[in-house]
UniProtKB/TrEMBL annotation, chain A:
The keyword Membrane applies. Keywords: Membrane, Transmembrane, Transmembrane helix. The keyword Repeat does not apply. Pfam families: TctB. InterPro entries: DUF1468 (IPR009936). Residues 19-152 form the DUF1468 domain. The chain crosses the membrane at residues 49-70, 82-99, 105-122, 129-151. This is Tripartite tricarboxylate transporter TctB family protein.
TrEMBL record, chain B:
This is Tripartite tricarboxylate transporter permease. The keyword RNA-binding does not apply. Pfam families: TctA. InterPro entries: DUF112_TM. Keywords: Membrane, Transmembrane, Transmembrane helix. Residues 17-437 form the DUF112 domain. It comes from the Bacteria. The keyword Calcium does not apply. The chain crosses the membrane at residues 17-46, 58-79, 106-129, 135-155, 167-185, 197-217, 353-376, 388-405, 467-487.
C-alpha cells in the first residue's frame, strides 16, 4: 500500500517535471518572440534591451531541458475535487478583483468572503454571517482611518463616515 | 567628539523618545499585517514628520522601519507569509517550529535575535559607516552583476536535491524582473501591450501571491486532509532556556555582521541579507540538515540578519546619499523635505544629526525588545482563528493589500497569477524563494551586466577583473558544492533503502 502510494508520487513527479519543462521552454520561446521587434534596435556595445532577457531565456531553456531528463520528484497530483476547489478559489479572487471598483470595497469583500468560506466548507452558519460583515468593516476602518489608504467606495461606503 | 555628544543630546529628549515608541508599535502592527510593507508605512507616515523637527521625525520613521522588520517575522512564523519582504528567509525555519509545537519559542527567538541584530548593526554603523560606504562606492556595474549572480546561486544551492529547479526558479525571477520599461534605453519590454505593466510587475503583489495566495490555495485544495491545529495555535513556553540562547548565540552574532554587510551594499537589504545570513550559518553549522525544518539557529540567523541590515542599509544612504533599499530611499525623501541632502557634506556639516540617527538605531532595538515582549501573547493570539475561517480572510487581505499599494486592479490580477504560479511550483517541487530573490536582484543584475559590457566597449572581458572574477568563482563553487552534496546524499539514500 505504502509502496503503491510512493510509486504514484514518483510517476506524478516525473510527469510533473516533463510538464514543467515544457511550460518553461514555452516561456523562454515567448520571451524570444516578444522581444523580436526590440532586438532590431539593439546595437553597438550594449548587450541590449532584448539581448539581456534573451540571454536569460536561453539559460532557462537549457535548464528546462536538463530538468526534463532528470528523475522526477514531486508531490502527488491533487484529487479532482481538490483541483476544482483551487480553480474555484482562483476564479473567486479574479471576480473579487474585478468587482472591487464597481461594487465598492465592502460589498465585494463580504460577497467574496461568503463565497470563499462556502468553498472551503465552513459549516457554522453564524460564522458565514458574522465573519464577512465584521472582517470587511474592521479592515475598512483600519485602512481608512489608521492608515488613510483609500479603498474603492460603493453605495454601502456612502453611508459610512 | 562634540558631534557625538550633540547627537546624544538631540535624541535623548522626550519627543524623539516618545515618537520612537509610537513608531515601533505602529511598525509591529504594519509588519504583522501581510501586504503592508515597511516602505509603504514609512511613506504614508512621512507627512506626519513635516510637523516636527528632523530628528524626532526621522526617529519616528526609523521606529516604524525597525518595528516592521521585526514584526514581519510574526506572520512569517505563524502563517508562512512574510509580513515584509525582509522576513522571507524567516519562513524557512520559523514555520516548521510552529508545526512542531514550538511556536512560542519561535516568537521569542525571533524577538531576541531581532534585538541583537539591531544592536550589532547599530554598533557597526556607528564605528564603520564611513569606511564601509567608501568600500561599496568602489563597486562598479560588473561587481553588482556578480553579486546578484552570487545571491541567486546561494539561494538555489539551499534547495539541495532540487538544484536545477532552484536555478530555474531564480532565472524565472530574473526574467519576470525584466517586464516593464527597459532601464537603459527606456523601451517597453514584455508588456504584452499593457500600459499598466510599463512600470513592471509590482514586487509586493508578486510576493503576496507567491507566499500568501499559493499557500491559501494549497489549503483550499486539501480541505479534508490538512488542518493541523498546531499550525495556528502556538504552544510551549515563551521563556528561552540558557541552553537555547547558547545554541543560537554564535550564529546570531555572525549573521548580524553578515546582515549589516549585505544591507550596506546599495540595492540590497534585509531580504537578501537574511537569506545569505541563513545560508552562511547553515553552511558552518553542525547538523545543518535541520536547517529549513525548524532549526532555532536558522530562525535566529534570518532574524538577526534582517534587523542588522536596517542600520546596514543606512550606511550608504547617509554617507553617500545612495539608498541601501526602498525604505532607505523613502528616508532620503524625509530628510530632503527638511532641506537636508544626505551625502558626505551632511556627514561633516550636520554631524550632530547623523550621530543622533546612529544613537536612535541603538535605542530602538531595546525599545522593540520591551514592546515586543509585553505584547508577545497578543501577537500569537492573532492566529487563534479556526483555519477554515482564516484562509478566506487571508485571501481577502492579500487582494486588499495588493490593491492598496497602487490602487491598481492589475496588481491584484498579477497577485492572483503569481499565487497560481506559486501553487503550481509547490505542487511540482520547485522552491519559490529563488524566484523572489531573482525578482529582487533582477534590475540590479541587468543594469550591472549591460553597463559593464558597455564600459568595456561590447567585450565581456570585465568578467575577468579581479573582484568580479572572484565573485563568479564563488558562485560556481557554491553551485558545485551543493551538487556534490546532493549527489552524495542521493547515494546514501539509495544505499539505505536497499
Amino acid at each position: 500500500m505504502e509502496t503503491a502510494t510512493m510509486e504514484t508520487a514518483r510517476t506524478d513527479g516525473r510527469r510533473g517535471n516533463l510538464v514543467a519543462a515544457a511550460v518553461l521552454v514555452a516561456a523562454g520561446v515567448t520571451v524570444f518572440a516578444q522581444t523580436a521587434e526590440l532586438a532590431e534596435l539593439d546595437s553597438g556595445s550594449d548587450p541590449g534591451a532584448a539581448g539581456y532577457p534573451r540571454l536569460l531565456a536561453g539559460v532557462l531553456i537549457a535548464l528546462a531541458v536538463a530538468l526534463a531528463v532528470q528523475r522526477g520528484r514531486g508531490e502527488a497530483a491533487p484529487s479532482r475535487s481538490g483541483a476544482l476547489r483551487v480553480a474555484g478559489a482562483v476564479v473567486l479572487v479574479i471576480a473579487y478583483a474585478l468587482a472591487l471598483e464597481p461594487l465598492g470595497y465592502l460589498t465585494a469583500t463580504a460577497a467574496f468572503l461568503l463565497g470563499a468560506m462556502l468553498l472551503i466548507a465552513v459549516g457554522r452558519s453564524w460564522a458565514l454571517l458574522v465573519v464577512p460583515v465584521v472582517f470587511s468593516l474592521v479592515v475598512y476602518l483600519v485602512f481608512s482611518t489608521v492608515f488613510g489608504i483609500p479603498l474603492p467606495r460603493g453605495p454601502v461606503e456612502g453611508l459610512l463616515p | 567628539m562634540s558631534d557625538w555628544l550633540a547627537g546624544l543630546q538631540l535624541i535623548l529628549a522626550w519627543q524623539p523618545l516618545l515618537l520612537m515608541v509610537v513608531g515601533v508599535l505602529g511598525g509591529i502592527l504594519v509588519g504583522a499585517i501581510p501586504g503592508l510593507s515597511s516602505t509603504m508605512a514609512i511613506a504614508i507616515l512621512l507627512p506626519f514628520t513635516f510637523a516636527v523637527d528632523p530628528v524626532p521625525g526621522v526617529a519616528l520613521l526609523l521606529g516604524i522601519y525597525t518595528g516592521s522588520v521585526y514584526a514581519g517575522s510574526i506572520p512569517a512564523i505563524l502563517l508562512r507569509i512574510p509580513g515584509t519582504p525582509a522576513s522571507a528567509a524567516t519562513v524557512l525555519d520559523g514555520h516548521p517550529m510552529v508545526l512542531r509545537g514550538e511556536g512560542r519559542q519561535a516568537l521569542s527567538i525571533s524577538l531576541v535575535a531581532s534585538c541583537v541584530g539591531g544592536l550589532v548593526g547599530g554598533v557597526l554603523l556607528l564605528f564603520f559607516a564611513p569606511s564601509l560606504a567608501q568600500y561599496a562606492l568602489r563597486f562598479g556595474p560588473a561587481e553588482f552583476f556578480m553579486l546578484a549572480l552570487f545571491a541567486i546561486s546561494l539561494i538555489a544551492s539551499m534547495s539541495e536535491g532540487a538544484m536545477v529547479k532552484g536555478l530555474l526558479s531564480g532565472v524565472l525571477g530574473l526574467i519576470i524582473a525584466t517586464v516593464g520599461t527597459d532601464p537603459i534605453g527606456g523601451y517597453p519590454r514584455l508588456t504584452f501591450g499593457s500600459n499598466e505593466l510599463l512600470a513592471g510587475l509590482g514586487f509586493v503583489p508578486v510576493l503576496i501571491g507567491i507566499f500568501g495566495v499559493a499557500e491559501a490555495l494549497t489549503r483550499f485544495e486539501q480541505r479534508a486532509r490538512s488542518h493541523d491545529p498546531r499550525a495556528l495555535s502556538t504552544t510551549g513556553s515563551f521563556r528561552l532556556s540558557l541552553a537555547t540562547l547558547r545554541r543560537i548565540a554564535p550564529g546570531t552574532a555572525y549573521s548580524s555582521v553578515i546582515g549589516f554587510g549585505v544591507g550596506a551594499l546599495p540595492g540590497t537589504g534585509g531580504d537578501i541579507g537574511s537569506f545569505i545570513g541563513h545560508n552562511e550559518v547553515k553552511r558552518l553549522a553542525r547538523r545543518s540538515e535541520d536547517f529549513g525544518r525548524g532549526d532555532p539557529r536558522g530562525l535566529a540567523a534570518a532574524e538577526s540578519a534582517n534587523n542588522a541590515s536596517v542600520p546596514g542599509s543606512l550606511a550608504p544612504t547617509l554617507v553617500l546619499g545612495i539608498p541601501g533599499n526602498a525604505p532607505a530611499a523613502v528616508l532620503i525623501g524625509a530628510l530632503t523635505v527638511h532641506g537636508l541632502q544626505p551625502g558626505p557634506q551632511l556627514f561633516s556639516g550636520s554631524g550632530d544629526l547623523i550621530y543622533s540617527i546612529f544613537f536612535a538605531l541603538l535605542i530602538l532595538p531595546v525599545m522593540m525588545l520591551v514592546v515586543g515582549a509585553l505584547g508577545i501573547r497578543s501577537w500569537s493570539q492573532i492566529v487563534r482563528v479556526p483555519t477554515q475561517l482564516l484562509w478566506p480572510c487571508i485571501l481577502a487581505l492579500s487582494v486588499i493589500g495588493s490593491y492598496a499599494v497602487r490602487s491598481s486592479v492589475v496588481d491584484v490580477l498579477v497577485m492572483g497569477g503569481a499565487g497560481l504560479l506559486g501553487y503550481l511550483m509547490i505542487k511540482t517541487g520547485f522552491p519559490t524563494a529563488p524566484l523572489v530573490i531573482g525578482l529582487i536582484v533582477g534590475p540590479l543584475a541587468e543594469a550591472g551586466f549591460r553597463r559593464a559590457t558597455i564600459i568595456s566597449s561590447g567585450s565581456y572581458s570585465w568578467m575577468l577583473d579581479p573582484l568580479p572574477l572572484a565573485l563568479l568563482l564563488l558562485s560556481v563553487l557554491t553551485v558545485t558544492v551543493a551538487l556534490i552534496r546532493s549527489a552524495r546524499g542521493r547515494r546514501t539514500t539509495l544505499r539505505s533503502s536497499e
